[in-house]
Amino acid sequence: MKKTLAIFDFDGTLTTKDTMFEFIKFTHGKTQMYVGLLLRSFYIKLYLIKIISNEKLKEIVMDYFYEGKLKEWLEEQAVLFFEEKGLEMMRDEAVEKLKWHQKENHDVFIVSASINIWVEPFAKYYGVKLISTEFDYTKGIFNGKLGTKNCYGEEKVNRISEVVDLASYEDIYAYGDSSGDKGILRIANHKFYKSF
Length: 196
What we know:
By secondary structure, this protein is α/β, with parallel strands linked by helices. The protein has helices spanning about 20-30, 30-40, 40-50, 55-65, 70-85, 90-105, 115-125, 155-165, 180-185; strands spanning about 5-10, 105-115, 130-135, 135-140, 140-145, 170-175, 190-195.
């Protein structure tokens, strides 16, 4: 039987905004978000001149805003975030394509560099599987570290390869909007960059 896989990037592909900043804004407010980013601007500069990786920068930013938070609290905030802001951030044409794949009985995944905490409610709502970056917890409390590698670039391919046998698919569709999606676009025979 012919099998088809559809891989969607999340931020900027399925959504019109970067959800990391939107989630921080939701949980902390706009002012606290900008103050926090200003206080971490040294590390942002290090990332821009390629001294530290995007993975390290993400860990530093997430540590600043969420270290010490209960996983349960983070999950509650993520559900509220989706209920209040989620659907208005979705890109209509991307959602239409996602639903088309579902109607065709394709295997559909969101593969995202964003943290699973706030992407999970989106994946559940649309009924698709999720692979993303995850937090690390100590006794149910976020310890400021990432529990996985940043799910970006080739790591997207590595992570989805752990879950499915890519060779078993006759067709692979991939949808992305940035350099972080080069990996999934490379393995697809139907590639959609900033298009659907």
